[in-house]
Amino acid sequence: MNDLQFKRHRRLRVNESMRSLVRETHLQKEDLIYPVFVVEEENVKKEIPSMPGIYQLSLDYLVEEMKEVESLGIKSVLLFGVPNEKDEQGTGAFHDHGIVQEAIRVIKKEVPSLMVIADTCLCEYTSHGHCGVLENGYVQNDPSLNLLVDTAISQAKAGADIIAPSNMMDGFVAAIRKGLDEAGFENIPIMSYAVKYASAFYGPFRDAAQSTPQEGDRKAYQMDPANRLEAFREADSDVEEGADFLIVKPALSYLDIMREIRDRHPVPVVAYNVSGEYSLVKGAAQNGWVDEKAIVLEKLISMKRAGADLIMTYFAKDVAKWLDE
Ligand code: PBG
C-alpha cells in the first residue's frame, strides 16, 4: 500500500464495539459512594445554594433519599451530620443520640443493605469550626484524639459499617483502631482520609455542613498542595497504624498522587471528588457551557484510570442513572 513505515493505532478505534473490546478501565455502580448531609431539625429538605441538586435532609427525608439511592444500585453512602448546637469541644459528634448516630440507626433499620460510612470529624460540631480542640489559635493534636475515638465508637455503636476519620490529626488511625478494638468493634474497618490537602475545593462543602473555621484556616493540619512526598509519609503511617482503605482528597488536581498511592499500597484506594469539583461542573452545565454527562463520566473514569478503586461523589445518583442508559 504505502512504503512508509508506521503503526495503525486507529485499527483499535474503528467503532464502538472495537473500542469497548480494548477499553482498559471501567466505571461501575459498585464504585460509587454517595455523600449525604443530615440535619437535626425536622421536615427539612433544603438545597445547598452552591451545590445544586444536593440537599440538607432531616431524618424523614433521609429515608426517602436512601431508598432511592438503593434502588439506583448504589451500595454505599457517606454521612455528615449538621447539629443544631455546637460547642468548643464538638461534643455533639459523640453524643449517643447525636444527629449522625440517629441517622445511622434510621438507615440501618429502614434500608439495611446500604453500607453506611460515617465521616468522623469534629468540625461540623465545634463552635469555632476547626477539626479538633482549639487552644491559643492552634488545633491541639493529642487532646483531639480522645474526642475522635469517642466519636468513632459512638458511630460504631449506632451501626456504622465503616469509620472514615477526616480530621488529619497525627495518630488518629492508631487511636481509633485501639478504641474500636477495645469496644468490641474489631471488625469495623477504618477508611482513612490519609492524604487530605488544605484545598479551596472544599468551599461549597463548608456551606453544606456549616463547618467554615471562624478564624484562620486548616493549613496547620491539612496538607500543602505543593507536596508529594508528604503524601507518602501520611499514607505510610496510616497503613502502619491499621488503615483498611486510603482516601486521596480532592481527586482531580491530585491524580498524580492517586496513582502513586495506588502503586505503593495494596489496599483499596478511594478518590474523593469533592464539593468544589461538583459545583464547577454544575455551574458550567447550568449555563449550557459544557455537556454535564460527558464531563462527569470523563472525570470519574480519569480517577479510576489514576488508580482509584472507589469514588466518593455528589454525582453518584446521576452516574448510576447514566450507567443504566
Ligand atoms: C471534614 C470534611 C471536609 C470535607 C469532608 N470532610 C471539609 C474540610 O476539611 O473542610 C470536604 C468534602 C467536600 O468538599 O466535598 N473535615
UniProtKB/TrEMBL annotation:
This is Delta-aminolevulinic acid dehydratase. Pathway: Porphyrin-containing compound metabolism; protoporphyrin-IX biosynthesis; coproporphyrinogen-III from 5-aminolevulinate: step 1/4. One of its GO terms (cellular component) is cytosol. One of its GO terms (molecular function) is zinc ion binding. It holds the Pfam family ALAD. 5-aminolevulinate 1 binds at residues 206, 218. It is an enzyme of class 4 (lyase). Catalyzes an early step in the biosynthesis of tetrapyrroles. Binds two molecules of 5-aminolevulinate per subunit, each at a distinct site, and catalyzes their condensation to form porphobilinogen. PROSITE patterns: D_ALA_DEHYDRATASE. Homooctamer. 5-aminolevulinate 2 binds at residues 275, 314. The keyword Metal-binding applies. Mg(2+) binds at residue 234.
